[in-house]
Amino acid sequence: MELVKVLGKGTYGSVELYRYKQKDGSVIYNAVKIIDSENYGTLDQEFRVLSELRGSPCIIQLCGNSLVQGTDCNGAKVYKMSMEYAAAGTLSNFIQRNRTKLSHSVIKDFTRMILQGLVSIHGHGYVHCDLKPDNLLLFPIYDKETWNCSYQLKISDFGLTTRAGDESDCWRAHEPWVGTAIYMSPESVRDGTTVEKTLDLWSLGCIVLEMLTSKQTWSGLGIDAVKALLLDEEAPKIPETVPCDARQFLEKCFARKPEERGSASELLLHPFLTGDEKMGSAAAAPGERTGMVLRLRNPPPISKDIPTKPLKLKVISQKPQQFKKVSNKPRKVKILPPRPPRSDFVPVQ
Question: Name one GO molecular function term (predicted).
Answer without folding.
Answer: protein kinase activity
